[in-house]
Amino acid sequence: MIEVKNLTKRYGDKLAVNDISFTVEKGEILGFLGPNGAGKSTTMNMLTGYISSTSGHILINGKDILEQPKEAKANIGYLPEIPPLYFDMTVDAYLNFMFDLKKCKLPRRAHLEDVCGLCKITDVRKRVIRNLSKGYKQRVGLAQALINNPPVLILDEPTVGLDPNQIIEIRSLIKKLGKKHTVILSSHILPEIQAVCDRIIIINKGTVAADGTADEIAKNITNEHKMTLRIEGETHTSADKEKITSVLRSINGVKYVRADMEREKGIYDYDIETDGKTDVRREINKVCRENDWNIMMLQLSDLTLEDIFLKITMGEHIDLNNEKKEKKPRPRINLVTNNSSEDDASDEKKSEESKPDEAESAGGEK
Ligand code: ADP
Ligand code: MG
Q1: Is any atom of ligand 1 closer than 6 Å to the C-beta of 202?
Q2: Among 178, 176, 182, 183, which residue's Cα sits nearest to residue 118?
């Protein structure tokens, strides 16, 4: 659906986006995760044809955004970082204006009703945009992106500045939209991306630092050479600790052993680091058997996605374990996308029930 190849954007000397490539399949909800200034908005502005790239290609549904801008853009609904709203217009006037601007051929009344219903702005259609709360403004921005039912939705930090209730609403709306549309959404907040997206691209300093599902990213960036062992020695005293540490250190492939906390009376945790080539687990079992020690726990120290994100964005070097990636290409996401209308109808119901409308503020804030 979307193909990005070697995309680069320079602002003078400043390299905002540096040679990034990725593809997005139909029906995916892809999250761009990255700290402020990473290049998310710049990338989205290029994807939607708002700004041109310095080099590289973008194909939307097979159409090049620079060579066939009209055809390519017809596939996209865009909610930029700052929604393009006309504050003096009523919601209705604005959406009608956007309808005309996009030369939408769908039956006007029914389509606008659908879009307003979906974005839950039906009750504010007669109101002037300026007077709406931030949450409502954002939903009007989203409605604008949905006019003409574009197959691709690009949403730049759609929940920024919203309160927790509004955030939950927008997230559930995006999930729902993901059933019918291909969605790219950006955020600098990890839990947000984790909550909504099938797949994550971590962008840092204009480059793609990781690409995959949360699990895949976490798996591909593990510290398999690090583990924690909990061993019960025979005397349950610190004498065990000395002996166990020294025996573990003598195992071939073990580079480093440190006795850590006492977990239960006389039972300690040991942090072990290996050379990264030797699988030492069997040998560990063997020495424990020989010495009559009990292994109470053996855990490879996996990183959480949060650890990974922090490490990447703090500029710490982490091993992306490319070797593994090449052997096993990123498995395609198992799409739960379903275009059948029954499915959507039931989903519609669920989400209607899920929360009372924030019916706002609508009355209160005049
Ligand atoms: P993000 O959306 O991830 O926060 P941006 O894409 O807005 O990041 O910005 C990426 C980098 O490009 C930043 O360092 C920003 O200062 C720079 N940048 C963005 N727009 C411009 C511009 N019009 N002129 C010069 N530098 C820019
Ligand atoms: Mg941005």
Answers
A1: no
A2: 176
